[in-house]
């Protein structure tokens, strides 16, 4: 299936989820993510977590997190299709506010995450990702040296994706049902 058709199909599936279903699946995903982050921390140690504020039926990854667990760096999408990450207080995550552009007051300070949470529309167990089509994250990931974790619901995991040279693989994929070792060797 081509990317455009798959994007449409996944978006339609996600629209069928109720708020209660999203919260239930997200709670389980959040526990799986915490488990993986603890494992990564034991192996490599890290403090800064690059993250996103969920939009349009994306997992509420933060439901089981504690405010002081990590240094949270929230993504900002610039008009020139680049990303930057900025320190935020944990209480700044809100699943009722769907945006990926931060207020100017938060853009004063920036940082580079050691572990990066990556949204997407579809994923494979091998770490391939289908984004929303603008390649913001693929551009950033092309030079990112840390650990990458794709977040999606199990219904977003597909057998295969049509990929191109610029499509970057992720180290892990976390859903409400499983943790897949994507591009980890």
Short summary of the structure?
The chain is an alpha/beta fold and 185 residues long.
Describe what this molecule looks like in 3D.
The relative contact order is 0.20. The strands form two sheets. A seven-stranded mixed β-sheet has the order 3-2-1-4-7-8-9. It has a two-stranded antiparallel sheet with strand order 5-6. The chain has a single domain (3-181), classed as NagB/RpiA/CoA transferase-like (Rossmann fold), CATH 3.40.50. With 185 residues, the protein is of the alpha/beta class. It has helices at residues 3-15, 19-44, 136-141; strands at 48-51, 71-77, 83-87, 115-118, 122-123, 129-130, 147-151, 172-174, 179-181.
Essential attributes:
globular; 185 residues; alpha/beta; Rossmann fold; two-stranded antiparallel sheet
Summarize the SSE layout with pairings:
Elements: H1 3-15, H2 19-44, E1 48-51, E2 71-77, E3 83-87, E4 115-118, E5 122-123, E6 129-130, H3 136-141, E7 147-151, E8 172-174, E9 179-181
Parallel strand pairs: 1-2, 1-4, 4-7, 7-8
Antiparallel strand pairs: 2-3, 5-6, 8-9
CATH homolog superfamily: NagB/RpiA/CoA transferase-like
Indicate the proportion of strand residues: 15-25%
CATH topology: Rossmann fold
CATH class: Alpha Beta
- In N-to-C order, the SSE pattern is HHEEEEEEHEEE
By DSSP, the count of extended strands is 9
> Which strand order do you get reading across the main beta sheet?
3-2-1-4-7-8-9
């Amino acid at each position: 299936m081509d990317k455009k058709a798959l994007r449409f199909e996944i978006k339609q599936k996600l629209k069928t989820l109720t708020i209660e279903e999203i919260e239930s699946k997200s709670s389980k995903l959040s526990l799986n993510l915490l488990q993986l982050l603890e494992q990564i921390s034991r192996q490599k140690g890290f403090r800064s977590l690059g993250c996103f504020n969920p939009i349009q039926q994306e997992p509420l990854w933060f439901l089981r997190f504690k405010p002081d667990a990590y240094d949270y760096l929230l993504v900002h999408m610039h008009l020139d299709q680049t990303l930057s990450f900025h320190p935020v207080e944990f209480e700044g995550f809100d699943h009722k506010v769907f945006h990926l552009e931060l207020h100017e007051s938060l853009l004063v300070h920036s940082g580079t995450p050691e572990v990066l949470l990556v949204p997407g529309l579809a994923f494979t167990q091998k770490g391939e990702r289908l984004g929303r089509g603008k390649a913001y994250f693929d551009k950033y990931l092309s030079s990112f040296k840390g650990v990458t974790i794709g977040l999606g619901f199990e219904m977003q995991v597909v057998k295969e994706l049509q990929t191109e040279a610029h499509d970057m693989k992720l180290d892990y994929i976390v859903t409400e049902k499983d943790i897949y070792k994507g591009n980890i060797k």
